[in-house]
């Protein structure tokens, strides 16, 4: 059963995967996570295989069906076979290749190391953690750099910049909406302007997500932090004196 899933992942056969879920009594329906996250003898899951081979649509389908997006390998595995044929034969258990240490690899590491930015896009859009490190201490970004997959390095750099901007937006909105966090120190105008600044930057990010450079995104983050500084400074404490607007 698991071997069939690994073959489907290697071939990128989305329709065949969907067919496994047609029978409501099938284990794929009753215990999807258990089956979808099963690993082969080398430690790879179906999601790992699909990401490694650039099977973008199958990656999306596996995630929708319940594959664990941030699961990491727990044993040695082959990372760089010599040919596409060797990759395929290895994934279905029909060849032996010397193992190398890729402990701690996620599907994101796989897609990055093999140079598949389209798979990175699907994984990140579905919540892949770009900060997870493998046994070498590498995030997916560093793994891509090690194998000179420049398009993946660029994509992951932009993803990190986007996350940095979004974290400021999210943290600010959470603080504005939670009286315990802002401790009643924000005026109505503070809240309105703070939310407006965040919404404007979020709209900018949505409209420039695919084309903005890393530098442009960090510039937007810096601008937002400057706009929010007068409001957020009210939460700062110097010694035993809480800073308010009158003391700034």
From TrEMBL:
Organism: Stylophora pistillata
Organism lineage: Eukaryota, Metazoa, Cnidaria, Anthozoa, Hexacorallia
Swiss-Prot/TrEMBL keywords: ANK repeat
ANK repeat ranges, renumbered to this chain: 42-74, 103-135
Domain of life according to the entry: Eukaryota
Protein name as annotated: Ankyrin repeat domain-containing protein 45
PROSITE patterns tied to this protein: ANK_REP_REGION (PS50297), ANK_REPEAT (PS50088)
SUPFAM superfamilies: Ankyrin repeat, Heat shock protein 70kD (HSP70), C-terminal subdomain
UniProt key word NAD: no
């Amino acid at each position: 059963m698991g071997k069939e899933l690994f073959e489907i992942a290697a071939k990128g056969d989305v329709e065949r995967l969907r067919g496994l879920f047609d029978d409501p009594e099938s284990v794929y329906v009753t215990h999807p996570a258990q089956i979808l996250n099963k690993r082969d003898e080398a430690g790879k899951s179906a999601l790992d295989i699909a990401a490694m081979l650039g099977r973008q649509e199958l990656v999306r389908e596996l995630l929708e069906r319940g594959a664990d997006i941030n699961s990491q390998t727990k044993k040695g595995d082959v990372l760089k076979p010599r040919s596409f044929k060797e990759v395929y034969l290895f994934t279905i258990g029909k060849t032996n290749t010397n193992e190398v240490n890729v402990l701690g690899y996620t599907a994101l590491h796989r897609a990055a190391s093999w140079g598949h930015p389209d798979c990175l896009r699907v994984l990140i859009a579905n919540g892949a953690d770009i900060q997870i490190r493998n046994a070498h201490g590498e995030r997916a970004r560093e793994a891509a750099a090690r194998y000179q997959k420049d398009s993946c390095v660029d994509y992951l750099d932009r993803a990190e910049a986007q996350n940095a901007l979004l974290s400021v937006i999210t943290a600010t909105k959470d603080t504005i909406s939670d009286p315990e966090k802002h401790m009643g120190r924000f005026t109505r105008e503070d809240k309105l302007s703070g939310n407006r600044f965040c919404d404007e930057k979020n709209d900018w990010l949505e409209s420039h997500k695919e084309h903005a450079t890393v530098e442009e995104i960090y510039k937007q983050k810096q601008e937002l932090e400057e706009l929010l500084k007068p409001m957020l400074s009210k939460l700062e404490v110097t010694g035993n004196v809480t800073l308010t607007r009158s003391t700034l």
